[in-house]
Structures are given as structure tokens and as C-alpha cells.
Known about the structure:
The structure holds 2 protein chains of 2 kinds.
Chain A lengths: L12 H7 L4 H14 L7 H10 L3 E7 L5 H7 L6 H8 E6 L7 H16 L6 E5 L2 E2 L8 E2 L2 E2 H9 L5 E4 H6 L12 E2 L10 E4 L6 H14 L12 H4 L3 H4 L3 H6 L9 H4 L18 H4 L47 H27 L5 H11 L2
Parallel strand pairs in A: 1-2, 1-3, 3-7, 7-9
Antiparallel strand pairs in A: 4-8, 5-6
Helix pairs in contact in A: 2-3, 4-9, 15-16
Chain B lengths: L3 E7 L6 E7 L5 E8 L5 H5 L7 H6 L8 H14 L5 H27 L6 H4 L4 H11 L8 H16 L20 H21 L1 H7 L26 H30 L15 E3 L19 E3 L18 E4 L13 E2 L31 E4 L8 H11 L2 H14 L9 H31 L19 E10 L2 E10 L2 E8 L1 H6 L10 H6 L11 H9 L6 E4 L10 E2 L4
Parallel strand pairs in B: 1-13, 2-12
Antiparallel strand pairs in B: 1-12, 2-3, 4-5, 6-7, 6-8, 9-10, 10-11
Amino acid sequence: MATSPILSPSLTTYELLRQHGVSRRQFLSFCAMTAASLGLDAKEVPRVVSALETKPRLPVVWLHGLECTCCSESFLRSSHPIAQDIVLNMISLDYDDTLQAAAGHQVEQIRKDLVERAKRGEAEYVLAVEGNAPTRDGGVYCTVAGETFLDVLRETAAHAKFVIAWGSCASNGCVQAAAPNPTGAKPVHECITGKPIVKVPGCPPIAEVMTGLLTYVLTFGRLPELDRIGRPKMFYRQRLHDKCLRRSFFDAGQFVESWDDEGAHKGWCLYKMGCRGPTTYNSCATFKWNGGVSWPIGSGHGCIGCSEEHFWDDGPFYERLANVHLPGIETTPQTIGVTLAAAAGAGIAAHLAGLAIQRARSKSQAATEKANTNSEMEV
Amino acid sequence: MVTRIVVDPVTRIEGHLRVEAMLDDDNRIREALSSGTMWRGIEVILQGRDPRDAWAFAQRICGVCTTVHALASVRCVENAIGVTVPKVAEIVRNIMYLTQLVQDHVIHFYHLHALDWVDIVSALSADPKATAELAQKVSPHWPKSSEGYFRDTAATVKKFVDSGQLGLFANAYWGHPAYKLPPEANLMAVAHYLEALAWQKELVKIHTVFGGKNPHPSYLVGGVPCSIDLQSDTAINIERLELVRSKILEARDIVEQLYVPDLLAIASFYKDWAAIGEGVGNYMAYGDVPQNGIADVAAFRFPRGAILGKNLGEVLEVDPTNSDEILEEVGRSWYRYPDGKTALHPWDGHTEAHYTGPKPPYDHLDENGAYSWLKTPRWKGHAVEVGPLARMLVGYATGRPEFKEVVDSALGRLGVPASALFSTLGRTAARGLESQLAVGWLQDEFDRLIEALKNGENSTANTTKWSPDSWPNDCKGFGFAEAPRGALGHWIHIQDGKIANYQCVVPTTWNASPKDAQGRPGPYESALIGTPMADPKQPVEILRTIHSFDPCLACASHVYGPDGSLVASIEVMT
């Protein structure tokens, strides 16, 4: 995926950084950190350096549909690279109604001009979508400048190089698509066709996942490897449960049974409090949030599975999982990966069944819990 | 000749809002319409769900003021089922709330509002040495104010502009006659735009400590989900608390040495805006930051009350649970109520979309019919403004000394009378003054937390009512928060352990509401009336007043002929 041609003659990212007072040494350190955050081998650092030395800023159009703006807010929280670097030095954020200085016709004109130029082959841009489109009743539930968001999305996507679906709204539908989905909200891939779409689910996605994706694309000029539903493998390959700090307590059968109980103080497993870690794929357990400070499970609340499809309707959140879904098979044939993933899934199922049997033997189990135990044993 | 202009979307706000207005011959706004152009139906989605889950759904109403909807939600459920939270949980919630308030206000000032007053292009002609002198005068203790620092900032701006890729700053109103700052003040503000951008991600780490992430930290009915245990390596311990304390200290520096000095310096060039954008002149606050449980309203740091007709001599009592006080109308909104009803209290509220607007794509809305996805809330029949100005006025009029001190000090430094508060400038200033109070309170709340821990109090959750079996079969609750943008209320009706009805009246609904049955405009609409525009093609003045409310929507503006007909549709381009 070529991403390099740019709207107008421009300095490279490195030149811009230099002129912003960044030393060569600081620049190289920035490149190394970027490579590390992308999980790249040290030998790849020169490629990052080269990319940022030679590639001009990438035009990005950032649309907002039905959403709460948490994705934008998360993006601004990025620790490496920081938002200023991205907006001033890495991309050219040509349209974003949350942050744009201009308003109204002036800002709509920017988008329409860019689309028109791309149509004529004179420009390239990436479309980033935050939120999704209501499709019921002719799309009247979200309009921008008198046009339905659905029309704006389709018009802008038609000439984009590729599309980034920020967050669970754009990737999966998220809260407004939860039952009964009053507005007929649909994620991006159900609204447009014929464009590569990278899904970055999460409510919101982790900041460094968002900026990491952009940095990867800028560095390598192509999209990262995606899993079968379009998520970057580099960020969504791992199940939280497998990387969880509390995992050893799960394995040992030590659970938080009630909020702020002894187990909560000792950091025991939150599975019984409804934690969705066993069925959620995201980088929370590895990157953590807000510069690595913590993550929901780390701060005592179960995961609600916010990067998974239909997680809002997979509740109630405090009711523990009755079964654990097996991981899916990815489009790129990776026999070993699939085998391992399936084995891990089966392992969890067996593990849960084992725990369930232990519980069934316990005299302290309440009658209601026995019902859950039975369903777990069917896993 | 009367002109009608269209601005859609108005940017640098959250969400989708549209304002339509009419200009007189002298380019003054005669009438304006405010219209929310987005509806997601979260109140409908909440029906039938577990009330303990509601906070997570409601939190997704807004990711900018993330946390306040969750707070209002857990409070309404707790109110309904009759559970009180432990003291330490209340303090942790206060810390998270105040963190949000301060972070949101600083972002609003620098990243959403400043460009209405600050001309980036003018900054290019600033003298770095003179800028350093100005900055040192404005804020003597702020460390980053050397000539070299501003020379670097100027170089950053120049190279960015020279790149030809203006990104977020393209097609804007640079050079517009309404911009009054000298180049040095513009350069100083641009430098601080970047400083604040780098800092905003730091303060929210307080949310991450207690709630696991930001945006959208975790909440819990009955308390907070994190445990505090000074002897534990996994609960909130001294390392975590020290992280929180360090971020509070940073916030104090940012507010006291960057934000408020910049605010007052910029305001001093725009005193004419102390006579523009008054609005309805009625103000309401539910109050917040409890000190002795949610029921002890008198002990809140932000007092509850209402002011009518700018009368600071009297603060009226507000009872959001009284079905006669708060009513939501839908006569000018794209909803319908059952049985031909026109106004309902939120506990009896009803959300049924019924779009009667023009078929998209459209040029303008029907100002004589329904024109918004926002309902029209009224307090005792009055359109009331909510937000920082309302909170500061209610605190001031209640006679709280800390409110009087910051307000009187700012008025004195600007050399303007108290009447200047009722304006666009007053609204913007109130946000900064409130942040001053909030950073002080953050420190106070942290001290209270440490004091409680010293006394051996560390319970963070009351689980006695966790099980739905312990709830009444039928109960109603009210929860609230003084969101950054103003009074936020959630009303819940629980039946048999499930949500039977859930209604939110959010600050922007109060402020951006369409007209009511009597034809009286809402606060946005009212505040725009009389505003002079230097150039109707470049709606800087509309943005100033709309942004002074800190909208939680994306908005649009039209200007109509006196009979509401389209006289001239002006394509606004540069």
C-alpha cells in the first residue's frame, strides 16, 4: 500500500523535527522508541529513521459520525509519539471537526477540495473514521452541513487510499448499535465497499495503538498484517487473559468474590466479578493505558470487553462468563499460530470446567452458582 | 437587506450541533436557532438492562467530559436502591471529578476556544525577545519564558506554515479584524497551546490510577472499584498515591501559572466582549463535590441553586426530583410524547424519535417547526444557563468566600464591574476562575484521603445492596454531576431489578435547547442575539459566543431574513 505521494512539496518529518529544534540524537532516540513500541526488531530501526527522513506528511481526513469523541481524546493522550509530533510533524490532519480552526463552509470546502483532487489523481489521503453512520430513516440521525453522515462517509471513502476505523463505533457499531439499535447504526465496513479497512477497536482504543498504527503505515508505506476481521495483529493478537497480571490467581482458583474484599486487596482474579479478559483481544495487558500507568483490570474492575464485537449486548457486565469462545482462524494461513491458539482456547475451556468441578464440590456454593457451574461445564 | 449565512459544522466542539440566525442590515444577529443534528438513542438502549451496568453505557454519551455521566449514573442508581458510598470512595470520586473538570477546562481554553481570540499567522511577526518580556510579566513564576523558547516556537510555526500543509489551521480566519492581540501575545498563546497539549495527557493519569484508563475510567455502584491498601503491591498504595499527588501539583502550576494568567492577559484585549453574549440571564447549578455524603447538599463545595434575571441578591432552591420544577418539552424537537403531552418531568420522560425536518441534503431547517434533536428543558418554566458561569454565580451569590475571592480578584485585575460576568467574556473567564478553585480543592480532597487512611478508613465499596434481590421491586432515583459544561442530571426508574426508564438532561441540552412553547429561545440562541459581525462570511463572532459555552456537540449557523426566508445563502470561503 503506497502512501507516499503528498499534496504539496514538503519537508520530510526529519527536516521538520530538526527545524523544530530536535537534535539528531533526539531524533534517533525517537525512532528507536517508535520501533520498540511497534514491536520491531532493533535492526528495523534504520528503516524507521529512513522513513521519517524521507517521507512527507500524510494527509488525513478524520470524520466524526455517531460517537462520543473518546477516540480523539485517547489519541491526544499518546505518550510516544505525542500528539504534537503527529499533528505537526507526521501527518497533515487536513480535516477534523473536533480540532479544526476553521468552521462551516470553510472546513467543508477543505474536505470537498481534497476529495475532488484525489478523484483527479492529484492527491492522496487516508480516511480516519471515528463513529459510525445511522442508516435508518434515510440517515437523518446524523447530519453534517445538511448532508447525512452516511453520504459524507461514502463520498470521502470513495477516493481515500485506505480507511482507518477508529474505535468500536467504526469497527463494530459500539453503544449506539446495541439493542435495539434505534438509529440503525452500522460500522464502517457495512457502509462502504472496495476499500481496505483497518479496524482499531476499543472504547476507546489505546492511544499508542492508534498512533502506532499511523507510525507503522508512515514508516513502511503499507498496512500492517491484519487478522481475519481486519485488526492489526501487532495489537490485537493477544487475549488479555493470557497476559494478565492476575492470571496466576485464576490458575490457582483465587478470586475476588465481592468488591473490596480480601482478594481485591491482594490482586486476585476478577473472573467472578464478570471480567471479560478471557474473551477480549487487545493490548491493555501489555501496553496498559495513559503511558503505562494502569489498565482496568489493574485498577480493580473487570474488563468489559470494549474491543470485542457486540460487547454491549454480551452482559450484564458483572455476570461472569458462562463460556469462553475459541479464537478464530485468521485469513493468512499460519498453521502453527492457529494450532497454538486453538490449543490455548481448549486449555481454557478445560481449565474452567476443572474450576467448575471444584466449585461444585464446595459446600459453600450457593444454589444460583450451581446453575452457572452447569453451564460452564458445557464449555 | 437581511443576510442569512450558513456555518455547518461549527468546529472545535464535541458532537454535532447547528445554529441558524438572522442578521440585520448592520450585521447584527437578530435571531438564532440552535439545532443538535445527532441522535444516538442511548436512553432507549438502556431500557431493560441491569442498572449496575448503566454507568458504562451512559459514560459513552461523552468521551470528552468522560467520567461525569458515569458519576451521575452510579449516583442515580444508588439513590434509587438506597445505598450510600463509603467516605473514601466519595473522596476518590471527588478527586476523579475535579481532575476531569480541570483537564477539560484547560483543553477547552487552549485547543477549542483560543483560536477564536488568537491569530496564529500574526504570531509569525512577533519579536521573541518582546514575547519573553511579555510572558515574564504575565506569569513571573512560569519557567518557560525565555527568548530562546519563544524563538523556537516561532520557528516551529514558521516551518509549519512554510510547509504548505496547514492541516488543522487551513482556511481559517487569520487576519480577521476581530482579532485584537499583538503579535507577541499571539506567539505566547501558540506556545502555550503546545504546552497544554503536552500536559493534558498527564493529569488524566489520576483517572488511570483509580479507574484503570482514560477516557472512560471504571466506576461502580456502591463505591469505586479500586481497593486502597497501603500494605499491598497490587491495590492503591503509596506509590500510586504519590503519582496522584504529583499530578495534582502539576495541575496547580498549569492552572495558576499558565491558564489563568493567559486568560486574563487575553481577556484584557477583548473587554468589549464583556458586553456581548449575555444570554438568558438565568442560571442554575445542581452543586457537587460532596463532603459529607450525597444527601448533605449544604456541604457541597459547589452549592446548589438558581438565579433568575441576573439577581445576585437571591439564590433560589432547586429540587430536581420535584415533578413541577424540571420539565422537558418536545414541541420544537424531533421527538413525540404519548397521548399528546407536551412537557414531561424526566422520571416520566419518553424518548421516541420522530423526525420532521427537511430531507437531507438540505440548506436550512424549518425555523417555524421542529428543528433539533435536543429537547427543551425548562426550570419552573425558565430557560436557564448551566456551566462554569452558573456555578460561579451561584457560589458568589450564596456568599461563599472562596468564590467571592477569585471572582472579585479577576474583576479587579481586568478593571471591569460585576455586570461584565453576564457575557461571552464572563463565561470564558468563569471557566478559568473555577479551575483555580478546583486545583485547590483537588489538593484538599487528596489531603482528606490521606487523613482518612491515617485513621484506618480505607473501605471503597458498600456491597450491602449489590445484589438486585436486596432492592425494592419498584424504585426511582436521581443522580447528578456538575459536568465541566454544567448541571447534568440522570433520572432512573427501576422495576424488578431492570431499568424501566432512563432519562438524561445534559448541560448542552439546557444551553443549546431550541425554543419552548412560548417561543422563548434557549441560552445559545439568546446569547447570539445582538452580536455584531465584522464580516458575515467569516463567523468568528458566532464561534466566540458558542464556544464560550463549551458545547458538547458540533454546530452550524445560518442567518435568516426577518420573515425567516432565505435572502442570500453565502458560501463562506477564503
